[in-house]
UniProtKB/TrEMBL annotation:
The keyword Mitochondrion does not apply. This is DUF4239 domain-containing protein. The chain crosses the membrane at residues 12-31, 52-73, 189-211, 218-236. It comes from Mycobacterium pseudoshottsii. Pfam families: Bestrophin-like. The lineage of its organism: Bacteria, Bacillati, Actinomycetota, Actinomycetes, Mycobacteriales. Keywords: Membrane, Transmembrane, Transmembrane helix.
């Protein structure tokens, strides 16, 4: 989808600046044309109707944008929670290695470390909608490393069973994360149509509002244009939970790598 390509390939600051210039600048340019071609609009004869329409449209616009921002932010929070659950399960696997024999412990630690590195490398690839087979391969190696353990006593049996449960939790969290990242298309075209329509109505009402002083009118339209541009930027960034400046982070997986990596000398 176009919105995902935009968020992935255009830096956040550049996207914000471009939207402000495009929306606010375009609105001011249209306003200049309207004021010259329809000079009667600068009078306040139609302001009662415009003021009522502006109030209704502004309320609907504010409600809709607020609802969208809340829903999209909740989606990012859910993905953050999913990533933390995945990282927590992996850290617990690392903590439980102490009860196993040295050979088993070293083999599992290496397999878990390789998987976490592959999972971090997979993160941006999955966010762009592509597969990363190496992550699947290293996860299979991790399962195989645990299956080779032959517990010597009840303690190792208990911890091995717990490790398999945590491994399953980590696997399920990763599957959900990868599916969500690969299939994420952001808000549908229907929602974007409503967003753009209400944004255009808000700008249109500010343009046709009767203000005799050009400087005041231009300032009003530019301010509304900047507000609309910022809202569009926010919806674009929030619409994709795994890409962009506001996306969820693979930091929980990096924490696992930090726990598993030997201390530097």
């Amino acid at each position: 989808m176009v919105s995902r390509w935009v968020v992935i390939n255009i830096p956040a600051w550049l996207l914000l600046v471009a939207l402000v210039i495009l929306v606010a600048g375009g609105a001011v340019l249209i306003q200049m044309i309207v004021r010259r071609r329809f000079p009667k609009l600068t009078q306040d004869a139609h302001n009662d109707a415009t003021r009522f329409a502006y109030g209704v449209i502004g309320f609907v616009y504010a409600f809709f944008v607020g609802f969208m921002v809340s829903a999209l932010w909740s989606q990012i929070n859910n993905e953050d929670s999913q990533a933390r659950s995945e990282g927590a399960a992996a850290i617990q696997l690392a903590r439980d290695l102490t009860v196993f024999d040295t050979a088993d412990r070293d083999r599992i630690r290496l397999a878990l470390l390789q998987y976490e590195r592959a999972a971090v490398a997979e993160w941006p690839i999955a966010a762009s909608g592509s597969d990363y087979p190496q992550a699947d391969s290293t996860l299979q190696d991790l399962y195989a490393a645990y299956q080779q353990v032959q517990p010597r006593d009840d303690t190792q049996k208990i911890f091995l069973a717990a490790s398999f449960r945590n491994l399953e939790k980590m696997y399920q969290a990763r599957v959900e994360r990868v599916i969500q990242a690969c299939t994420d298309e952001g808000p549908s075209w229907l929602l974007w149509s409503v967003i753009l329509l209400t944004s255009g109505l808000v700008l249109g009402c500010s343009i046709v509002f009767g203000v005799e002083q050009p400087r005041i009118h231009y300032t009003l339209v530019a301010t509304v244009g900047v507000l609309v541009a910022v809202n569009l930027f926010l919806l674009l960034e929030l619409g994709h939970p795994f890409t962009g400046a506001l996306a969820t982070s693979p930091e929980p997986l990096r924490d696992v790598i930090h726990v598993l990596s030997p201390p530097s000398s």
